Every structure is written in C-alpha cells, then in structure tokens.
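Fold this: Protein-glutamate methylesterase/protein-glutamine glutaminase
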Amino acid sequence: MEKFGVLVVDDSSFMRKCITKIIEKNPKLYVVGIARDGYEAIEKVQNLNPDVVTMDIEMPNMNGIMALKKIKELHDIPIVMLSNYTEEGAKPTIEALEAGAEDFFLKSELIKQDVDDKVIDYFINKLINIVESKKVQKQCLKINMDEMVNKRVLNNDKPNAKTNIIIIGTSTGGPAALQSILPNFPADLSVPVLVLQHMPPGFTKSLAERFDTFCQLHVKEAEDDEVLQSGNIYIAPSGFQTTLHLRSDNRVSFKITDSSNDNNLYKPSIDVTLNSAAPIYKDHLLVAILTGMGNDGVVGCKSVKENGGHVIIESENTCVVYGMPKAVFEAKLYDVQVPLQDVLKEILTYV
C-alpha cells in the first residue's frame, strides 16, 4: 500500500505531538518530519519532499502564511492550514487560502478531550484525498483536453431559458477556485449569485468581506428574510442551512435556519439549498459544482435536472479533490464538465 509523508509544522510541541499521533494511526500516512517555524518548514520541504504539509498560521520568526507563499513559489506540494476557531483566526485563514493553501482545519477540533472519531476521520481523509487528487492532476495534464466530456455540446442542447439565478457549490479547494470566477463576473451581471462553501461557523463572513474588496459585484453573507437582488453575490452563512422561498409578491428571499439539531453533515448543505431552489426557478436555474470532498450536491442536482435546470461540474484535472463533481458526474446529472479555467465562460453562456 502506498503511504504518504506528512510534514507537521507548528511551534507548539503539544500540537506537534497531537497531530503526529492522529496521523500515524492511519496506515496510509506517516510523519516524515516536523518543523517549529516557517523557516524550518521551507528547509524541511526542500530536504524531505513530503506529500502534504500541515501548517500552523501563528508561529514565531516566520508565520505560516509567509512560509506557505515561499513554499508555493518553489514546490507543488499541497498545504493544509491549522486555524484558530475565532473571528481573529478567520481573516488570516482566508488570506492563507487566497495564497494557495488547499484547505484548513480547526485546531480546537483536533485537541478537545471528547473529540469525535468522525472528526478525526474527516481530517485524515481530507489529507489523503488532497494528496491523491494532486497525483491525479499531474497525470491528467498529459490527457488531451479535447477528450473532456461535454454532454450539452454532444447533444447540441443549447439552453432555451434565460438563467435567473446562479448557485455555486464547493468545499475543499473552494476559496481558491472561487477566486477564478467571482472577481470576473461582469459588473452588469443581471442575476444574483449564491455561493455555498463548506466552512466552520464564523468563517464565511470573512470570506465574503474579503471577496467584496476585489470583486466587481457586491459580495455579502446572506441574511434571513433578505430578498435576492440582481448583481449581488451572496455567501451562505456557515453553521446554518440556507433555503430559498417564493414570497407572495413573487420575489425570492433567503430563509436561514439554525441547524444545531440537524443531522446533515454539511452546514450549509448544497442539497438542502438546491432542493428549495429547483421548484422555484425550474429551467431558469443554473448550478456549478466545483472541487470538494464527499457527495453533497448530487441529491440537489437531481432535483435541479427534474425541474429543467442546468448543471456545470468542474473537471477532475483541476479539482483539489474530485469528490462532489465526481458524484454528480457518475449520477449523470450534469450538462457540461469543464476545467476550472472554463467554468466562468460556461456559466456566462447561460446568462
């Protein structure tokens, strides 16, 4: 069995021991080395050539964001940041994702005494999936892009109804993928955009604020009972479920509900949102499913297709993790599959 080497970077000896213990419980992973600050991390990446790096953000001498940027300049190695669960921790985490980190995980989730085995499994699977997808990406670079599957073109099935809303669903690798799409929406876009990004509670507000600084459209976190407006990009708040409701005046508004008693793993859940949106917008709904772990979105896309809507999925060769798009692909619930750099162009053909 192939094993993947992990470089653990943290200035806390306690955290290094915790993370090492968690990683070495899984037979597919082993700790290839440790580093105590950013300078040592750069040196260890060069000397040890790990398959993936877990990187603390706050460290002396050189912090994790600076180290991330240096490593990404020199090596094509995936990096998962370890973040603090605070509003102050959210902003540098978003900065790290913007600088090229594949994903992040909350330290507090890994070190609490009553930590759930599901949380540990999710962390481990995140590392494994990111490494395996990176290896697949390198293989995909050799594949002729003309062989990409495009059902809409093959069937000569051009959209026959104007799109009235764009919904984008993503998870692992999403913030970086969104950077290639959201800032490039034209300033005169005539429909609202709703983004569902899997994140811990408190992080989507910082994500929205950051995108609002460099997007041509206004970006904000969605609010309960807020009416959707054309030309806005809404980020569904993490820790809650976001559904769409048709009002008596024929306008559509958000319903943001507390999901603390919700057994759904994903909050926000792409499935939950799409199931509410599909009957309202029918063939005027356009969905894009981007990189992410798991299969959230496949049930919702079934509802979208049953109501005449359209679905774009990201290709395996550009996904950080080809999980969510793969689930939709295998269920044959998509219209077109394209690499990330072509997703925006494809979206705009429907608007």
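Residues 169 and 196 are 5 Å apart (CA to CA). The longest strand covers residues 29-35.
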